[in-house]
Design a protein that fits this description.
Layout (H helix, E strand, L loop, with lengths): L10 H14 L12 H8 L3 H13 L3 E4 L3 E4 L9 H8 L2 H25 L2 H20 L2 H18 L3 H15 L6 H4 L3 H19 L3 H42 L1
Antiparallel strand pairs: 1-2
Length: 256
Amino acid sequence: MPFQKIEAEKLSRSVVRQIEQLILRGILRPGERLPSERELAERLGVSRPSLREAIADLQERGLLEARAGAGIFVAQVLEAAFSDALVTLFASHDEAVFDYIDFRRDMEGLAAERAARLGSDTDLKVVDTIFRKMEVAHSKRNPADEAALDAEFHLSIIEASHNVVMLHMMRSMFGLLREGVFYNRQIMFKQRTTRDSLLEQHGAINRALQARDPVGARAAVEAHLSYVERALKDQQKADQNEAIARQRLEHESNRR
């Protein structure tokens, strides 16, 4: 029988597999810089030649990228799930905004339910820590900080759901949200009543997660995104009424 000697897996391949897993699980994020070659080789317990071979493989496959004088980074292309043409289409049609919220309500409700059941104690501690930062930002009345922490809070729940497909898909969706493709999150934090309501809603989500209440966590997320939908529709209606009023004033001015 043609048996062949079994050889131990090449060290470089072991390094590749470990970095792949870290990217897949979202531990290494798009745009994140890897440690220096010396430090990374020491952490992994491999030689620099083996590490260089692994890095070259990952670069060739588009998972890592080298930046001159800066180091090795997780490729940003991992967040680019939508073509530029489709992003432009999203931004130019209001219906995409509400379809986006519907999609988030379904996906994040499921993620919160999973996080309450499957999230580790560390996962839930991360969620709670971000919420505490939201409370501090709220007291300082900084819309930009509140908006950034809002996104971070929701993504931490998706990370705690332990579903890698959902994680990378939702990161792409939040990437578009950060760029203002669907709506400007900062605007929602400018009005005091809205800011207070949003903070309380995030608090309700956090409390359900910390209590490991899957049904309550899902319901809290769904209620929060329904509120966001209503707020945006109200804003859209107000903008339309303002535009109509402006047109009337211009028309009357032209008649004089």
